[in-house]
Every structure is written in structure tokens, then in C-alpha cells.
Amino acid sequence: MTTSTAPEELDGVRTPLRGRDAEMAFIEERLEALGRGRGGIVRVEGPAGIGRSRILAEAAAAARRSGTRVFEGAADPDDQFVPLGPLLEGVLAGEEPLSGAQRLRDLATTPGQRFWLLQELGDRLREAARNGPLLVVLDDLQWCDDLTLLTFHTLAAGLSSHPILWLVAVRAGSVPSGVRTTLDRIRQAGAHELVVEALEDRAIARITEDVLGAPPDPDVLRLARRAEGVPQLLVELLGSLREEAVTIENGMARLPDGPPAPRQLPSVARRLDQLSEEARELVQTAAAVGGTATVALLAELLGRSSAALITAVRESLDADLLAESGDRLAFRHDLIREAVDAGLPLPLRQALRRQAAGLPPGRAPADAAEAEKPAPTDAAEADRLRTEAAELAATAPRPAAERSLKALELTAADAPERPRIIAETIPLLWQTGRAVQARELGASALAAGGLGPEDEALVRLALARLAVSFDFSEAVSQARAGAGLPGISVTARGRLLAMLAVGLSMSGEHAAAEQVAAEAWETAAAAGDRAAEATLTTVRSAVSFHRMDLTEAFRQAERSAALADALGVSTSLWVPEALWHALLSNTTGRTAEALAVAEDGIRITREQGRTAATRMWLMTRSRILLEIGRLTHARADAEAASPTADDPSPGNLADVTLRYVMMRVAHHTGDRQTAQAYAAEARRMRGDDAPVVRHFGSWMLALMADLEGQPDRAMDELDGVMTSPAADRPAYAGLIDPADAPVLVRMALRAGAHERAAQTVAQAERRAALNPGLTFLAATAAHARGLLDNDLDRLAHAVRLYEDCPRVLARASALEDAGRKLAATRKAEAVLYFDKALSLYARAGAERDVARVRRRLRASGVRRRPFPARLDGEWPELTPAETRVVRLVARGLTNQQVAEILSLSPHTVSSHLRRAFTKLDVTSRAELTRLVKQRDSGE
Predict the structure, then answer these.
(1) Rounded to an integer, what distance in angstroms lies between the CA atom of residue 283 and that of residue 317?
(2) pLDDT in tens, 240-275
(3) pLDDT surpasses 80 at 363
(4) Coil, helix or strand for 885?
(5) How many helices (H) and strands (E) does the chain have?
(6) Radius of gyration of the chain (CA)
(7) Which has more pLDDT, 332 or 442?
């Protein structure tokens, strides 16, 4: 057995554990269960340096404090051929070894005694467990020998009824086949999984303060972020700065001389030492080359064939030093590459770089002084970082953003290429959730002046892309200013016009969007720009939707999504074009398709680390979930996507998605306090420059007036929208969604506004007639007409049409309206309709609607037993507060983020989560997420 140094140790002193509250809460839950006699297996997984060993050490310490007997073992890559070494050393060494230690050692060293060894070891553990719970810790499972793996799995299965908790850790990624088989077996046996991920910014800042002794200034924090949330790399990087590069001034840790040159890192040196000589040479050569490299290039530099490097490449990948990047090899972290590179003699680095660049081996660079500069301060280093950022942008935007920022740091303020680097960096920062930083970067470049027309155009294009999710009018302003610059390239002009068309379309200025799109299309065609074509195809789809030609809208949306997918998301000028396709599908009743697209969007963007796109998809899914009557889920998505401190404004996209969703949920549940809060937002929205935001704000205020029983005021709120020019009036029936047409008709009739009700019905019927293949539109039109004419046949027809649609609330509303019409003369039939409506409303959690239908039933002489208070169909075990926490955690948010969204303390969130874990019988966030997905899908 070997004892690993925990990643957060520096000079033998362990720093506080930061950013692992959720992981430790999960461990504590399992230890509490162990104390109650419930054992099991917990598998901790994560990449090298992420802190698995530290979590195991903290778990062991917590167990000892509670009186649990602990056995700790760890595998070592150098001792893989010592059969059963890690497990035996774990249970036989330490302060309180298993009884019969000598007997076990004798059996382990005697040939042919493996069966008896397993029997004896099992008996000893069983005997120990009778005296109290046991925690068996086994670290670095990926290095365990086959006998250890077999024994671990066999004992864990055979002793599953005893109070023994097996806590094992394994490195993520490629592992030997025997390890993979063991992991599969324990998963099938019900092992709980705990995946340890990169630290968030808050934890990075806290660790930086722990190590340096003072809060970091922005420059120090930027440098700390280069560790990409890996604790081991972070602590070692900070340790290399502490003695020389950092000073404490005015209570802040600063870098007075700027970022230091790269240095060797102890953990990287240890991992290099564990490699074979061939693999070590491969890694060192790749570091000297810099960036990514093909196997063919490395083979040429090493004087070998590519085939001869197969084993070395596999070993380097398994060691988590290198990773595959398309057809190239790249370093897992740029800090690892720099640390390996720093360990090579300068002449060797220079020779390898010259050879990789195709220079003759004996030829010296023209400028000897330039050659002696550290690589990170070279213009060539900035070029290399830009190239890497471009290669990583499509699949790993966060590392790409860090590389782009580093390239910017290395570029002089007056360098001609600096504006281009700024334009490249802005979208990467935005995509990774740093919109304020991105906006400031672009604004500073424009304010400084001196930009040439092409450079200014590219910066404005980047700012327009950023603004399109926050401020539709700002996107229009930036794109229009950029497109009007003289002498810019055809490509830049085409992309700016495309963004202008997008901004106008999203603003609700449909006629202007169509006009600009026509000009942009010609410009993009002349430039052969497929990315602009994908964006403009989305605009064409939106124009067709506005004209109510939904067949053409779908055709263009599908073409746009296919074009964007073929190009790769990083080339998209707008947001993932599939997002529009999902919104379009949802608005026209193709909800299952919309939800599937949204789920894929959330999964893919989360995997890629595209924070901005993930939030857009969450906003989109919140709209979909609202319309299908999953109100709790819709609210959870809306809360998860709510604006953060790093958003440059409240956000127009948030206005027309999550704020609208929150108002609608409050309307259906009778939550006046929440409705009033979002009514205040709606009043702000009604003063926005973008017509569509004003329209949404007016509709939200109308809903608020309806909730307060003031139909006349509701009509007043809609005056500006219903009288706006037809060219730019929203194509959405009832302003937002086709299912709102009956809602608006009902409001208008209550207010005596018969003409407005008739206008809404005519619009709904026209849309249904233009799109005869969409049953949902026919259902909304029949529903609206039935209300206007007080026609039972029409209402009953609407009910039948809704049966083929997934819109739960719309269907329940039609059932209620039909029952209301029947109640006057045919009460028995009315009750049947009311009962169905009540069931649907209750399933959706629409408490206000449930209460109203109950009143109708009582008026018909029927009383129904109340449903359990605030039952969510999928979560009957939980309280409302617990449900909201569970929904947010399942979307990948930390306890701290959930606390901020729900205005709770992290402790309260943790308490809700612990109770939910107990009620749902889950023991990890991963298990909880799987359960949420299962219930969401109806499994």
C-alpha cells in the first residue's frame, strides 16, 4: 500500500477543503446510513488531480470521529504485480488491524491458497462488523492487480448485508479491462457513484486566498483560473508563486511583475517519472512542440515510425497527461504542457521547435535575443494559443477562452493583431458565462479608438452576438453600426447584416428583418459564407412563422439546424439554430419533438461547458414544460436559468422566456406574491425598445389583472399591442402562444370587449386554416370560437381535438369550458367534464385552477376529496421546498447556486437535499439526476 499526498497539501500543510460541500454532504449521508447498519459501495470518480484522495481522506476522518472503524488502502502504479497488496495492507496495517493478521499474511504468500484467503478475510471482516460498522477505503482502483479487484468485488457482494461501507476511488477515463469489469459489476450491484468535477470560481478564489494569505486581485485570479478548477494543479501553481512572484499590497495578493514564466509542478514530475522511457520522451517532445501535434510529427521528431509509438501514446493517454483532440494529441491541461516544457533544457526546446517548424537542425533563428525569450512571452506563443483556442472552441470553450485571454495578455496594446484577438475572445467569454467581462473587453476596445474599419467591424460583430441574448436593441445597434463601416470585407459585412436581421427579428420588427435579410442573403452568397446562410435561414423561418406559413417555417428551420450542425456550433452567428426549431415545434403543438431537441441541447452544451447556450436551452425548455402542464419543472428550469451577477442586463431573452414562465406559473397556482414581483418586471419590459418585449410585458400585466379579477384593466393593458401595426404585430394567437387565444377571448368577453374577442377568434381561425395539418391550431381555434359563440358543439369538438395534443392545461381549460356550458341544463354530463379537468389541473399543480373547478363541482352538487396538499405528480414524497431544490440540483447546480436562486442559505439547501435523499432513497447527486430523468420521461 502507498499513501498518497492529498492534492490540497502544500509544504506538508493541508489547506481547508473548498468547493466540495455537495460531495461531503453525500459522504456524510452514507456514513449516517452506515451508523444505522446499512453498508454498501461508493465509487468516487474523477480525473487526475481533481481531489478524489482528499475526499477519501476527509471521509475516513469523519468516520473515525463518529467511532467507525476504518481500514485504508491505496494502489500504486509501481506495485501492480503484488497480488492483493493494496487491500491486505489496508486491513492489516494501521492502528487497529484485523485480527489474525499473521494467518492472513501466511495465506497470501502461500501458493494455491487464494480460496482459503478469501474465506479467511471474509470471516475476519464479518467478525469485525459484528462489533460495529466498518469503512474500507481503497484508493486508485485503476492501479489495482486482478486479485485485489476480484477479492474486493467478491467480499463486497458476500458481505452486503453487514454494516460495511466500501469507499473506492478510480481515475476517470480509460482504465484496464479488469478494472472496467469490476466497475460494471459493482454498478450492477447497486454501487453509488460520486463524480468529482472541476471547482467553480468561488472555490478557486477561496483556495487562492488560503495559499497566498490574502484575497487575490483580478490578475492573480485570472492566473489561478488557468488550473481549470483542478485542485492539485491550482495549489501547486500557487505554491510556485508564493515565495517570489506574489506580494501582499493593501490586503490583496498581487503580481507586481506580471505573470511569471512557467515552472515545473511536483505532481506533473511524479506522473512523468511513472511513465516508461518511451512514453516520457513522447510527452516531453509534445510539450516542446507546443499546442497540438499529430502522431506522425512526434514520430518524425523521435526518429521512429508511428506504429512504434502505439504503446507510448496509450500510456500517455492513460496517465491523463495527453488527450485526443480530433486527429491530434493535446495536453489535458495547458499547465501540464508548460510544466513538462519547463523541465527541458532550453537548447533542446529550441531545437525541437525548429525541427517541428521545418527549419534545418543547425540553423539559428535570425534574432538570437528573440530566441532566448521565454516561449509564453513570444508573439509566436500568442499565435500558438490563438490556434489552440480556435481548435478547442467547438468542443471545449472554457479552455479555449483561457488560451485566448492568455494570447491577449501576451499581445502589446498597439499590436495590429490585438483587435482581432479581442473579437475572437468575446464570444468565448460569453459562451462560458462571463458576459460582463466580454462586454467590457469590447467596449474598451471601441472606446480606445484607433481601430481600422475591418477591426471595428469584427469587434462590433462579436458584441452583437453577445447582446442578442441580453439586449435585442443593442444587438441591432452594434450590427447596424458595424455593417455601415466603409471598406470592410464582404464576409464581415454579410455576417453583420445577418446579425442585424436576427436582432430585428428577435426584437419583433418583422418587416425590417425581412428587408435586411434579403440584402444580407446576397452579401453572404457573394462571400460563400455558410455560417451566415445558416443564420439567415433561421430568420427566413421566423418570417414565415410571422406570416402564419408554418409548413415553410418548419422547412426553413430544419434546413437552418442542419446547416449549423454541419458547420459546428462555434461558427454559428446567433445561438444554436436548433433552439429556434424547438420553440417553433412547441408553439405549434409538436411538444414531444420540442422537448427532445431541448433535452439534447442541454446535455450537449453542458458537456461542452457552453454556459450561455445551456441557459438558453433551459429557458426554452421552461416554455415547453409550461405548455405541457409541468409547472414545477418549468419553474425549476426558469429559476436555474435566472440572470446572475455576471449578466450585463436583466436580459431580453429572459424576459420572453423565464419571466413570462414565472408569471404564467404564478397565474395558474394563484401565487400573487410571485405574480406581483413579475408584474414589476413586466412594467419595465413594457418600456423596452424591442416591440416583442413590450408585447410580452403587456400580456403579463393582462394576466396579472385577470388574476386580480379586473378584466377591464386587462383589456387596457393590451391596448397598445392590439392596435400596433399589423406588419409587426406578433403572430402568436393571444400574443404569446396559440393556446392563449381562448384565454384572451375569455378575458375580453368578461370585460365586454366583444370586438376584441372576435378579432382574436378570426386570427386563430385564419392560422388554423393556413395550416390544416396541425391539429393543435384547429383545437385552439375551435375552443376560441366556442367561447365567443357560446357554442357547446364547438367546445366539445375542441375537447376531442385536444385529446391528440400534449397540451395538458389547454385541454383542461376546454373541458372546464364545456362543463360550464353543460352545467346549466345537464349537470351529470358537466360533472364528467369537470372531473377530467380537475384531474389534469391537479396533475399539473395548477392550484388556482383546481380551486375554481372544485367550486364548479360544488355548484353542481358534487364534492371531491381534496388531493394531498401541493402534490407534484412525480414527487409525492417531497415538500414544495424540497422539490424545488431537487429540480435545480438535478440540473447540475451547486448548493451555493441553488441558495442564491431561491434566496436561501446554503445550509438550508443542504438540509432540504439531505431530507430529499432520505425520502427518495438515493445517496448521490448522480443518482438523484438519474431519478429525475426517469420520472420526467415517465419511466
Answers:
(1) 10
(2) 777 667 888 888 888 887 777 777 888 888 888 888
(3) no
(4) helix
(5) 48, 11
(6) 32
(7) 442
* pLDDT for the residue 576: 53
Residue pointed to by grid coordinates 380537475: 838
Please name which of 385, 395, 369, 440 lies closest in space to residue 417, comparing C-alpha atoms: 385
Q: How many residues does the chain have?
A: 939
Residue 256 burial (CB < 10 Å; 0-12/13-18/19+)?
exposed
The rounded distance, in Å, linking the Cα atoms of 97 and 89 is: 9
Q: Phi, psi at residue 77, to the nearest 5°?
A: -60, -25
What secondary structure does DSSP assign to 347-410, as a single string? HHHHHHHHHHTT--TTPPPS-HHHHHS-GGGSHHHHHHHHHHHHHHTTT-HHHHHHHHHHHHHT
Sole residue written with cell 474598451: 444
511 C-beta neighbours (distance < 10 Å), count: 14
Specify the pLDDT at position 524: 84
C-alpha cell, 790:
357560446
Which of 275, 296, 274, 298 is closest to 286 using CA atoms? 298
Stretch (H or E) spanning 73: strand 69-74
First to last CA, the chain: 44
- Other beta carbons within 10 angstroms of residue 278's beta carbon come to 16
Residue ranges in 468-549 assigned as alpha helix (H): 472-483, 490-507, 510-527, 530-546
- Convert the pLDDT of each residue in 646-704 to its tens digit: 565 568 888 888 899 999 999 998 888 889 989 999 999 998 888 888 899 999 999 99
Tens of pLDDT, residues 747-784: 999 999 999 999 999 999 999 999 998 899 999 999 99
Q: Which residues contact residue 438 at a Cβ distance below 8 angstroms, ignoring those fewer than 6 apart?
A: 425, 426, 427, 429, 430, 462, 466
The DSSP bridge partners found for residue 71 are 136
Residue-averaged pLDDT of the chain: 82
CA-to-CA distance for 530 and 892, rounded, in angstroms? 34
Spatial separation of the C-alpha atoms in residues 236 and 10, rounded to whole Å: 7
Label residue 554 exposed, middle or buried (CB < 10 Å: 0-12, 13-18, 19+).
buried
Residue 820 has pLDDT above 70, yes or no: yes
Tell me the helix, strand and coil percentages in the chain, rounded to 5: 65, 5, 30
Rounded CA separation 565/310 (Å): 33
Collapsing DSSP to helix, strand or coil, 916 comes out as helix
Quick one: cell of 667? Answer: 397565474
